[in-house]
Description:
Layout: H1 5-16, E1 25-29, H2 34-50, E2 53-60, H3 67-81, E3 84-89, H4 97-114, E4 119-121, H5 126-139, H6 143-146, E5 152-156, E6 159-162, H7 170-179, H8 196-211, H9 216-246, E7 260-263, H10 264-268, H11 272-286, H12 293-300, E8 320-323, E9 326-329
Parallel strand pairs: 1-2, 1-4, 2-3, 4-6
Antiparallel strand pairs: 5-6, 7-9, 8-9
Amino acid sequence: xxxxxxxxxxxxxxxxxxxxxxxxxxxxxxxxxxxxxxxxxxxxxxxxxxxxxxxxxxxxxxxxxxxxxxxxxxxxxxxxxxxxxxxxxxxxxxxxxxxxxxxxxxxxxxxxxxxxxxxxxxxxxxxxxxxxxxxxxxxxxxxxxxxxxxxxxxxxxxxxxxxxxxxxxxxxxxxxxxxxxxxxxxxxxxxxxxxxxxxxxxxxxxxxxxxxxxxxxxxxxxxxxxxxxxxxxxxxxxxxxxxxxxxxxxxxxxxxxxxxxxxxxxxxxxxxxxxxxxxxxxxxxxxxxxxxxxxxxxxxxxxxxxxxxxxxxxxxxxxxxxxxxxxxxx
Length: 330
């Protein structure tokens, strides 16, 4: 086996960030593109050091005429490498990026649960992280959206999603694939500029790289990394403040439903950043969709509003009203 600087980098990253444990079962999401081929090659080469059992999963969205051929290509690679292969094919073509992502994670989780894999591993890179940060920034978001992709997060009970390549750019994965002559499957939809992410990838990032910062992808990925730690800290502080304002303990927190009463005197002592986060956490419990900026702001305004002030109904019909020292949601 040829041991490259990228092998050493990923090996160090997995150890220092505690992304995996030894002798675990890893299900690798492989599309056939350069990032996922780079990922599976690295994990195959590191397998002997970690004692992993590896499997390859492929999700066919059926949104390209060559999607079946793409799936067969990945299956043949798995056979060549002697790895278990799992395929999930959509019942109908999925044409929305968001819907495709949700379906893909559901499919991967089902495959992992059915076959006893503890980890699902994806080939998201620093380039993906930079693009996601820009995409969310353009649409409007707070620090949570700007932190973009995280190194790991639980998908379902007992299954962790892990992204080991978040410090590797797409240029590096391409060079790695060329060095090892890995057979990349070119996805034609990556060139389709009707998708906002493709315009960011094909037009905006190259423009920023040429005119502002040659290392813009790494710089933006580092920004996302810094924000991730800050978001984790603020979320934990907001959770503690919310529990205090609700007058409950940790063991009761998951049981709180409408009606809710928040102590305004407790919240008034906190910085605005934490007030907003508390209100967002509360709204996440009562709204079916993620709360928007306007929802959070109108609830936060009640912290200092006159008695008997109230909001107009939130989606779903809930209303918040000031009753003395309390904000009541009902």
